[in-house]
Amino acid sequence: MREILAKILYLFYYFKVHQESKRTDSVLSIYGHDISRKNFEELVKWLLKRNYKFITPYELEDYLCGKLPCNKKYVWMSFDDGWRSNYENVFPVLKKYAVPATIFVATKGIEDGYFWFDKAFENRDSQYYDEIQELWEMQNSKRVEIISKLPYEMTVRKTMIPAELKEMTESGLVYWGNHTDDHVMSDNCTDEELATEIMICQEKMKRWTGVDCNFIYSYPNGNIDDRSEKTIKNLGFKMATTTELNRICPDTDIFRIPRMEFKDVSLTENILHIYGIWTPFFNRIKRMLGIKNKK
To answer: Could you tell me if residue 246 is inside a domain?
Structure first.
């Protein structure tokens, strides 16, 4: 059913897709999480066929600083968290087509083999909260306290391991970004908590990969406020990314870089995602029906 909807919506927005695929006035900024090799490879092939040039975070900074020509079709691709599939499914495609990607790693997940929200989803009926959404909105210290009390038995590892991070680094195709240690909500932390989370992430990534990850930061879950942005700047980062659905223009705020999310879905649907069609369309439908979005 979802694939049929995607095909119908694609036909309806065909001319918009065509126009978007021709644009050279901005950078196509896309990101994902956990994706199959098939769906990822189809998307990469589609973009390459349309002559997109995949760029590194350093080239992205050059673009935003006016040092990269603004008359080409650029795409900057990133991944959040550090899922196992980034190594098993994404990395082989990057090597096959020689394209770069940026991965923002939440390092505690690499050590544990899972993320704190895996625990939360496993314990949906917990006595500590009525809805999982509450965990994303409460103060970080309270979230940590609750998560520590939840039972969790890992049957399948969900994240990469340090040796895989090292291998990906040595390929020269993967660039690392900071995503905090425990995937904390930046705006729910005190200044000290956030700084500590970021420094722990940096220390672990340096130890595992031999390179720094203090060039670019990704706000976990897209949570951002002026205070957390100030912390990121004070820690010396050059750029930071959000989950705002938009392209990157020459005058984009370098500490609030937008990204379009692609998912583990059909190529047709992903085209609608990366050009900012799918989510806004269904958000309008939800508003008409009085349905609230959940993070």
So the answer is: yes
Residue 286 pLDDT exceeds 60: yes
CA distance 249 to 266: 28
Residue 41 domain flag? yes
Long-range pairs, 87-91, Cβ under 8 A, ≥24: 87/160, 87/164, 87/167, 87/168, 88/37, 89/35, 89/36, 89/37, 89/40, 90/35, 90/37, 90/40, 91/164, 91/168, 91/171, 91/173, 91/174
Higher-scoring residue by pLDDT: 221, 69: 221
Query: Which CATH number do you get for residue 254?
Result: 3.20.20.370
Spatial separation of the C-alpha atoms in residues 198 and 184, rounded to whole Å: 10
Consecutive H or E run containing 226: helix 226-234
CA distances to 40, 56, 78 from 172, rounded to whole Å, are 19, 10, 15
